[in-house]
Write a structure and sequence with these properties.
Helix content is 31%, strand content 18%. The protein contains eleven helices and 14 strands. The chain has a three-stranded mixed beta sheet. A three-stranded antiparallel beta sheet has the order 5-4-14. A hairpin with a 5-residue loop joins β8 and β9. α5 crosses α6. The longest helix is centred in the N-terminal third of the chain and has 17 residues.
Length: 330
């Protein structure tokens, strides 16, 4: 996995935050999406079939070997069989009754991402973050446990030996809940560009539940948050926020505040926002911050995958659409 290890700087950051130095790669031309259910107001990409590419794995990669995880719940490393990992990872990321192909795409993405790190993937089994075990799922699902676990186990059996790869090594197939309508380029979040993480249209996301969410802060609350950023806001709140610039995917690239400029990902954390695609409005002593999407926006959109699966797209179609240039290896 020597080529994968070249991405270690990028992937180390991803591992700590649930999924990255290097040369910047030009963004590839947008891929065309497999057929999926159109949403009202969504501009669907042209429906040209995606080739189902397959390629051999690097000799350094064992697709069926146990995975080593670092579990923050107890501060220990755990060795987990692939089947158990796929079940626990999918259970953390998606409702267990989501469409089969969306779940299969998530399983392959999780497996590939974990192997791409070159070090133990960080999870928290107690919080169902990244991966969890059957005991936690038993408590979480209650009387639904057997049916839910068996369903995910059956799906895991179908893809336990499958990986999404780039140039023969596992791809950093990161994922998020809902994009802002187009997925984000990796260098806009983690500074390092990967050729298969340059963003694709994901118009289905705009119809996802809670695609747009607003949070309101009083001027006093906002002043405290700005002070935590090292700023000294003046007496007039209308002067605090200046020009905002967004990137091609709709995420905040830069925002002027009190005469200084901050990146969108920094402000997402500072203001406890669902995503870095946001706008700021001030009126009547309150700031209203409205976000679009949920998560970092890079890689697989889970709600986009759900919509594609409901429209008839297979898990291979979903993965090769959201990760253009990657191949399915088995």
């Amino acid at each position: 996995m020597k080529k994968t290890l070249c991405y270690a700087v990028l992937l180390g950051v991803l591992a700590a935050a649930a999924p990255f130095a290097a040369l910047l790669f030009p963004a590839p031309a947008p891929e065309e999406a497999p057929a999926a259910t159109p949403q009202p107001s969504a501009e669907i990409p042209a429906l040209t079939p995606q080739p189902l590419a397959e390629a051999p794995l690097s000799e350094d990669t064992d697709a069926t070997g146990d995975l080593t995880l670092y579990d923050a719940a107890d501060g220990q490393t755990r060795t987990v069989p692939v089947r158990e990992f796929l079940i626990g990872a999918a259970a953390c990321e998606l409702p267990y009754d989501w469409p089969e192909d969306a779940t299969l795409a998530q399983m392959v993405a999780s497996h590939s991402y974990a192997l791409s790190l070159g070090e133990p993937m960080q999870v928290n089994s107690a919080l169902c973050a990244g991966w969890t075990d059957a005991d936690v799922l038993q408590a979480r699902w209650g009387e639904d446990f057997t049916a839910a676990y068996d369903r995910l186990a059956d799906l895991a059996d179908r893809v336990y030996d499958v990986l999404l790869c780039y140039d023969g090594t596992p791809a950093a197939a990161c994922y998020h809940s809902i994009s802002a309508g187009k997925t984000e380029a990796s260098q806009n979040v983690w500074l390092t560009a990967l050729p298969y993480l340059q963003g694709v249209d994901s118009p289905w996301d705009t119809a996802a539940p809670d695609y747009e969410v607003s949070v309101t802060y009083s001027a006093e609350q906002m002043a405290v948050m700005l002070q935590n950023l090292g700023l000294e806001p003046g007496d007039d709140p209308t002067d605090w926020f200046g020009e905002s610039r967004t990137d091609a995917a709709g995420y905040v690239e830069s925002q002027e505040i009190c005469g200084e400029t901050f990146g969108g990902t920094t402000l997402r954390s500072a203001f406890s926002l669902r995503s870095a695609a946001f706008t700021v409005d001030y009126a009547d002593g309150e700031f209203t911050l409205t976000t679009r999407g949920y998560g970092h926006g890079v890689g697989l959109s889970q709600y986009g995958a759900k919509a594609m699966a409901e429209g008839g797209a297979g898990w291979r179609d979903i993965l090769t659409y959201y990760f253009p240039g990657c191949t399915i290896a088995q």
